[in-house]
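REVIEWER CHECKLIST
Item 1: Sequence provided? yes
Item 2: Single chain? yes
Item 3: Sequence as submitted:
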Amino acid sequence: MTDDEFALSRRTFLDRVLLASAGVGMSAAAPWAAFAADDIAKGPRVRIGVIGTGDRGRTLIQNLNKTRNCTVAALCDPFEPHMTKARAYVPANTPIFTDHRAMLDARQVDAVVIATPLDLHARHTMDALDAGYPVFCEKAMARTIADCTAMVTRARQRGKLLQIGHQRLFNPTYLNALKRAQAGEIGAITQIRASWHRNRSWRRALPPGGTEREINWRLYRDRSAGLMTELATHQLQVTNWFMGGLPTRVMGSGSICFWKDGRDVYDQVALIYDYSDGRKVIYTSMLNNARYGCEEQIQGSKGTIEPELGRIYKEVQPAAVPALAKMRTDVQAGRKNTVPIGGATWFPELPITTPGDSLGWGEYDETMLQFEGFGEAVRSGKEVPGLLAQAYHASVASLLGEQAIDEGKALAWPTDLLTF
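Item 4: Structure as written out by the authors:
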């Protein structure tokens, strides 16, 4: 498939999701894809109440506005500067709340979207579930593994939908990559290298009335695990997905290496996740060099897939070593010449620079599509299959990684997690 064939339009986009997710094995690996991409049934739009109108909350509002089956029907945020910005994206008569419980009690919405700081996810989610609402909560799920488990348990107890925001699960490029990996195009996957590198402090200027821990909550451990929950969670979901399983243990190291500005979350981390049969995921993240950015390198015996870049590469046999060939010729001819023992002529195992083939790449509205899936799940009363397990395990993996770094030892995958 060429890049042009993957050009974005709503209909083309939905068709591509269906095309990418069709095939043997995909119904088990991505059961949500066809469900979410199906034609949206006619009927009243699902009224959504959004709790949290910071940068991420406003992005979600804009994506909700693109859907065919949802509408933003209420906003909640106690911080007026955020609320003022968010009101620009909704009708002027949209109800506004400063207390999420007041919004829940008003009974003016059908479902709730939560985009608050991480440490508030569990409380806001369980309050909404207890009030009888389906919930879409941004990733990561919660600040602790215990709270992640409690959120799923509460949703089951209340018989209510809980969906977590992992938009790569809906991206046609990733679905196409998974389909081709499962078809054996890159052989047995034995290692995945993933990274998310940035070159900025992550610190935000305080607006009038804002407090440090309210605005820069990502930098403090009581509110966030920093790189592990805000970034790594995305990619650990991808690695679990392509590995077709869960880690068996994790070890790692982290430090505050560059941004010594009072934060207490790491500004760089490096971890190794073991999977069955000796397979590995190597994950790194940092905040002072953006050269390699955000990427996953899914490495098999026959090739490599880089879904973030939308490319698939066939494994190329190394070229003949020129120095060895020259030495063989010299020996046969009886000549005595200098033998190089370094450089590309002796060690040709340099990075392969072939362009690879396209998996289809573009600015996909996967966040919009996950909301259309959520809207249909709310209408039907049936959760989009497979999503919650993916999110739960990704959050556990990120939090277990943080714990392994803190304790300085390898930690086994928990045996007391929920089953799906």
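Item 5: Key structural point noted by reviewer: The chain is about 35% helix and 20% strand.
Item 6: Recommendation: ____
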